[in-house]
Amino acid sequence: MSSRSAADYGIRAGASGGVGDTDYRFYSIRLGRTLDLRKAADRDLFRRTDAAVVLGWSRTAASPVTSPKGG
Fold first, then answer.
1. Are 23 and 16 in contact (CB under 8 A)?
2. Which stretches of the chain are assigned E, i.e. beta strand?
3. According to the model, what pLDDT value does residue 1 have?
4. Out of 2, 6, 26, 35, which could bridge 42 as a Cys pair, Cβ 3.0 to 4.6 Å?
5. Which pairing describes strands 22-28 and 33-34: parallel, antiparallel, or unpaired?
């Protein structure tokens, strides 16, 4: 496994949605376009570089609930 990320090869990703589903779009800075991973040529960009793609989610922590004074 490569120790380099896809970003090192000019591939960026961004998430949209996040309510029930999250869609990730991969964009090639070198090609100047969004990648379509249904196409073999675009998938090959990841295979040739052997770059790691790590997806993650985070959730904002809820504010702590405080009791009113005297209650």
1. yes
2. 11-17, 22-28, 33-34
3. 44
4. 35
5. antiparallel
Task: Give me the residue spans of the domains in the chain.
Answer: 6-49
Cα–Cα dist 55/37, whole Å? 15
CA 1 remoteness from chain centre: 19
Cα distance between residue 22 and residue 3, in whole Å: 26
Going by pLDDT thresholds of 50, 70 and 90, the confidence category of residue 61 is low
Classify residue 42 by burial, with Cβ atoms within 10 Å: 0-12, 13-18, 19+: middle
Residue 44 · residue 36 · CB < 8 Å: no
Judge whether residue 71 has pLDDT over 60. no
